[in-house]
Fold these 2 entries.
Entry 1:
Amino acid sequence: CRAVILISGSGSNLQAFLDAAADDACGYTVEAVISNKADAYGLTRAKNAGVDTEVLSHRDFTDRESFDEAMVEVIDAYRPDLVILAGFMRILTPGFVRHYSGRLLNIHPSLLPKYQGLHTHQRALEAGDREHGATVHFVTEELDGGPPILQAAVPIESGDTAETLAQRVLVQEHRIYPLAASWFAQGRLRMVDDRVELDGELL
Ligand code: GRF
């Protein structure tokens, strides 16, 4: 299973995929890393792992559609079976999502459907929640609305800040995201009419 990973920042989730891909048993190869930010540290992580990198700055395009069309061309040159959004901080057009429908994954730092959107850790703290977490989901045209595949919960501790909570969540992200990709690579996971089917069972 050929994977292409999209990033915008530090790439700690990317690093988890690169580490997992060192073992063929994961079922996928990371064919390329594509960033919309030239200064994303994840690009360095990719180069250190000998993985091809591409940068497409959305500032070089007049509108969202033309940027997404350019991304599709760059991505498809790598013939991906799976496209992974890993800290990719752009909203994708319906055309892009449709093109990769059923083979486009994202991780969101909350227990969806709670806290779609940004600043999820701060919002969970302000709500006085006792737990928080992360969700791997298929990407659909609804932002952060795709069907959940795998979630991990962490306790919110007294004295937590958004930063300490984010770090605790990231540890779980790095565990569940490569696992979900392996399930997909092994043919155990698919999206059927915006529903997740794992081992033939609708979740
Ligand atoms: C993480 O909070 C992740 O949940 C979100 O992007 C943030 C940074 O991820 N998708 P990374 O360290 O760039 O992988």
Entry 2:
Amino acid sequence: MLLRLSSLAAGYGLKTVISDVSFALEPGQIMAFLGHNGAGKTTTLKTIMGLLPPRAGEVQFDDKRIDRLSVSDRVAMGLRLLPEGRGIFPDLSVAENIDVVAARNCGPGAMFEIDDVYKLFPVLDERRTTRSGSLSGGQQQMLAMSLAILGTPRCLLLDEPSIGLAPNLVERLFDQVQDVCRAHGVTALLVEQNVAAAMRIADRVVIMNNGQIVFDGLPDEARASNFWNYF
Ligand code: ATP
């Protein structure tokens, strides 16, 4: 298994938001991580990434326990978060955003170098000098995705990448996520409100309700279940 959560709990202040969260992901798997607003999906991603300390349980990556490692150590191991709200530097140009992150994440032999992301998203190549805050929503999301994959990602934690995108752009972006995962064996954990779009590319579906996992199975099993009750 590439990523394994065992009985994970986390929260804020006096409030424990997620508890007893366990699932594991194989290399190359795409998991749709679904659930209503406030269910605890973002909290789970933040805990995996090291932005929030676990209150109980363990996170393992590549069979090593990582829940006490720094965020930068986790990035170096190949964990990448595309945060809710994109996480780009809006005052920098497209090229400056890409160069800053590439300088940090692209070591020798990186899977995705600067030229690779421009090939994957040609519109960003055309907009290299544009201030990234002035890009369209779709282009900003492509930039956010580029920043997440630069270097050698092994597991992408994608927090609602479809927000604000037109349906055709969502399809295209998700096709690109699927291509990256299939071609390079990258794992993706995809938090989505756009259930249909996420299910289209997912190998696996995990549903969270009130901070707990209530379903873990194949997309067809999810479709056949009563999981719609959780939305
Ligand atoms: P959404 O789709 O709305 O982002 P989510 O499933 O990702 O939903 P979380 O963002 O993890 O849910 O939020 C879970 C709970 O934790 C909510 O009740 C939320 O109000 C609370 N919460 C989230 N962030 C904080 C914070 N920084 N401080 C205190 N409570 C928080």
